[in-house]
Design a protein that fits this description.
The structure holds two protein chains of two kinds. Chain A is built from 13 helices and eight strands. In chain A, the strands form two sheets. A five-stranded parallel beta sheet of chain A has the order 2-1-3-7-8. Chain A has a three-stranded antiparallel beta sheet with strand order 4-5-6, with no helix packed on it. In chain A, helix 1 crosses helix 9 and helix 7 runs parallel beside helix 9. The longest helix of chain A has 28 residues. Chain B is mostly helical. Chain B is built from 17 helices and no strands. In chain B, helix 4 runs antiparallel to helix 5, helix 9 packs across helix 14 and helix 9 packs across helix 15. Chain B starts with 5 loop residues before the first helix and ends in a 13-residue tail after the last helix. Classes of the chains: A alpha/beta, B mainly alpha. The interface between A and B is medium-sized, with 26 and 23 residues.
């Protein structure tokens, strides 16, 4: 029996080392198609690398924006600056509360905002958070929070990418990147906003869907709200405008509103401003610059009327 | 609890350590612990259905005792039928109630009589078909006096609920498994290592082969109307590997896990896709179910002893019942009937026992004839799987007519070509390993036996790495859980 336990432990140790070594060689030398469960892309879609590089030296802000791509494509820091607010946009693609928590742990004290505008989107509560976790693992320095995040998400892709990323960081294999400000149709704006070249959306019918809350996403969200309360930071929850077909696809949207209202001041902009699906959006999710301007003006008006 | 989950990876070592280190000196405690562990394992899915298993255990335990005491043959028969009625009653209600209601309504409306009957929203308890058959085998064997009724309630409860094979088999016979609960188990190093190896291979089959093939099989079957003939044919092949990897992978994990606790379960799959005819295929596929039907249905019906008509009748009965066992859907019945037709051709020409030994035994390569027969058998099996996988008969027919169209000769186009090619390469590697290990109980049983330990460990670690690198990111349950 002792022999079995000893050999099992030794084998597990051997297999772990083997796994890490081969994973790194595999990740480094083979094309993406042959490594479906490693997705380590520095400077990938959404300018996350630039955003996280900038936040480290940004200083304190008046307003911090959090949330998904609706955030970094929806809150234009320049418009807020014109009105005298220093803001930072910490949104990231498909960001779920689990990633928001990690980012806050790293940057909240540094940014020390007076107000946080947290964009809440139903999908963010039903997603597993894998894709967004990969974005953070590849574009930020990893720490214990990354490991904690991986355990919560509990997905092989997140584990593999984290192991790969951590090894590269430990061995100093990541050379500093200078990410282009303009990438295809996207332009990175100081403060975290990404402006998309003007485009217009052709609305189409979208399949109906029910909003389902993942327990662990809701738990992370509650912890975030508590954190702001503890720190005495004012929090506003915002359901950013999306085209009508996308908005109306949710069969239980009222339920979502009622849940959000239970947490903090909540504004559902889909019910508050009237936008045109074609003129103010460039795809089924995101505002174009015309839409951004209307939305941002309205939110500034609300902030100032508090 | 799924074998391919983190929960099980934590559960198994805990049970193992308690079993061998804490209560290893007391057989009764060990058995009791296996019952508790099995209840936790099953209750992880839905604790409410534990009452069903408990009821089965209690009923069949007392039926066994009564059957053992009773000498009057008529009363013994009555007791047996009560047990069968109760066990199959539960199975029938949970699995077939809605099917029968729907079909009665359809039959009446065919004759112009509209009747109203409500179907129920019934959840099928996981593994009910498996443990019902296992516990039935006990009462039937006691009735036949092939086994003494047990007085050890805990041992009997452990036999019915034994967690490695509780939810998807192998469907054990009381004559094989129950006596193992009476004897003191001693830890055996080689047996435990062998168990670990079989678990590893089972995980590879399930996670890499079955789950990857499932992604393409589902994609193709769910959109079959828009697929070319070549894609549809590939979809059926993907499904063939999905179901084999899924089910035989589960059996390997079950057998391996049981070995860790000192138990020997029966082999459930014996390289069925290397069969040279359908009869051989059925001797190698889901052996525990096929032999169950043989022993408790086919032989009591007269088997192949009677005239031609009787042979035909009995063959159809067992294959159709076997199909129906898989699920309450006409597709399974057609699947069973199709296999019966395949089988009858051999039975009636007296060639159903031509290929008993494994193909090309002791050789590296099969002969051309063997290869040809293997390919034909595989083709027939794949064809039958279409009915098994299809949503309904119309779907199966349109799928098959899609294959037999001119687009069969077009090059298949996948949404994710690179992933499809990678999956095919993994399947080819899998077939080669299975081929090289086809004389063992499972493919890697003897592979690397004579290698130096570091090399052997590299091989096992490579399997683990491949699992980590190519496993689909969403957890998928075992197909046979739904049966």
């Amino acid at each position: 029996m002792k022999r079995f336990i000893l050999n099992t432990v030794l084998f597990l140790l051997f297999a772990s080392i083997f796994y890490i070594v081969v994973l790194n060689l595999w990740g480094y030398y083979l094309p993406q198609s042959l490594k479906p469960n490693i997705n380590y892309r520095i400077g990938s879609y959404g300018h996350m690398y630039s955003r996280l590089s900038e936040v480290k030296n940004y200083g304190e802000v008046d307003i911090l924006f959090l949330g998904s791509s609706h955030t970094y494509r929806g809150f234009d820091t320049r418009i807020f600056a014109e009105k005298g607010y220093k803001t930072f946009n910490l949104g990231s693609s498909s960001q779920t509360p689990i990633q928001t928590k990690v980012l806050l742990h790293r940057y909240l004290d540094r940014l020390n905002p007076k107000l946080v505008i947290f964009e809440v989107y139903p999908e963010a509560f039903s997603l597993d958070g894998v894709e967004a976790s990969l974005d953070i693992i590849a574009n930020d320095k990893n720490d214990f929070q990354s490991i904690k995040m991986a355990f919560i998400i509990n997905n092989i892709k997140t584990y593999n990418t984290l192991i790969y990323g951590l090894t590269r960081e430990l061995l100093g294999l990541n050379s500093p990147l200078i990410e282009d400000t303009i990438k295809r149709a996207d332009k990175y704006v100081s403060g975290g906003f990404v402006e998309r070249e003007m485009g217009f959306y052709q609305p189409e019918k979208i399949e109906e869907k029910e909003i389902v809350f993942q327990d662990y996403q809701l738990k992370a969200f509650s912890e975030i709200v508590e954190k702001f309360e503890e720190k005495g930071i004012e929090l506003i929850l915002v359901y950013a405008p999306i085209p009508r077909p996308t908005y109306e696809r949710y069969t239980n949207a009222e339920y979502f509103d009622s849940v959000m209202q239970g947490y903090a001041t909540y504004y559902n902009f889909n019910e508050m401003i009237s936008l045109n699906d074609s003129l103010h959006f460039y795809d089924s999710h995101h505002l174009n610059q015309n839409g951004v301007e209307i939305f941002n003006e309205k939110i500034i008006e609300l902030i100032e009327s508090r | 609890m799924l074998f391919n989950s983190i929960d099980f990876a934590i559960f198994l070592p805990i049970v193992f350590i308690l079993y061998w280190f804490v209560i290893n000196k007391n057989l009764k405690l060990q058995n009791a612990m296996l019952v508790v562990a099995s209840y936790v394992f099953y209750g992880w899915w839905d604790w409410r259905f534990l009452s069903l298993i408990t009821f089965s255990i209690v009923v069949d335990y007392f039926m066994g005792i009564l059957l053992g005491k009773e000498e009057n043959q008529k009363k013994r028969k009555l007791l047996l039928w009560v047990s069968i009625f109760i066990n199959l009653g539960f199975l029938g209600f949970f699995k077939y109630y809605n099917f029968f209601v729907d079909n009665f309504v359809a039959a009446f409306s065919f004759f112009g009589q509209d009747i109203k009957a409500n179907t129920l929203n019934i959840i099928l308890p996981v593994g009910i078909s498996f443990y019902t058959f296992q516990t039935l085998s006990y009462t039937i064997d006691v009735y036949r006096r092939k086994i003494e009724p047990t007085k050890d309630f805990i041992a009997f409860a452990a036999f019915v609920s034994f967690f490695p094979q509780l939810v998807a088999g192998p469907i054990e016979r009381a004559t094989n498994l129950l006596p193992q609960f009476y004897k003191k188990r001693f830890f055996n190093y080689s047996k435990a290592v062998d168990g670990m190896r079989q678990i590893l291979w089972g995980l590879f089959k399930k996670i890499i082969i079955a789950d990857n093939c499932a992604e393409f099989a589902n994609q193709i079957f769910n959109n079959s109307a828009n697929m070319s003939g070549s894609m549809l044919a590939l979809g059926a092949v993907f499904f063939a590997f999905q179901i084999y990897g899924d089910f035989s992978g589960y059996s390997d994990i079950a057998i391996g896990t049981a070995r860790l606790f000192g138990f020997n379960l029966m082999q459930n799959f014996n390289f069925p896709y290397f069969s040279r005819d359908i009869a051989e295929f059925w001797r190698r596929w889901h052996i525990s179910l096929s032999t169950w039907f043989r022993d408790y249905l086919y032989i009591p019906l007269g088997g192949s002893r009677g005239g031609t008509l009787m042979k035909v009748r009995n063959t159809f009965i067992i294959f159709i019942v076997s199909g129906f066992w898989h699920g309450a859907n006409w597709t399974f019945i057609i699947w069973g009937a199709l296999n019966a037709i395949y089988f009858l051709l051999l039975l009636l020409t007296n060639t159903n026992r031509t290929n008993i030994e494994i193909v090309a035994k002791g050789k590296i390569f099969p002969s051309l004839k063997e290869t040809l027969f293997m390919l034909i058998t595989f083709g027939l099996t794949v064809f039958a799987w279409i009915f098994f996988r299809a949503e309904n008969i119309e779907h199966a027919i349109s799928y098959i007519s899609g294959i037999f169209s001119s687009s069969f000769f077009t090059i298949p186009k996948f949404e994710e070509t690179a992933r499809a090619i990678t999956t095919m390469i993994l399947v080819v590697i899998f077939i080669l390993i299975e081929w090289s290990g086809r004389e063992g109980q499972y493919a890697i049983e003897h592979l690397g036996e004579k290698w130096y330990r570091p090399l052997r460990w590299i091989f096992y670690a490579t399997i683990i790495f491949l699992i980590g690198m190519f496993m689909p990111t969403s957890e998928s349950p075992f197909i046979y859980f739904q049966f």
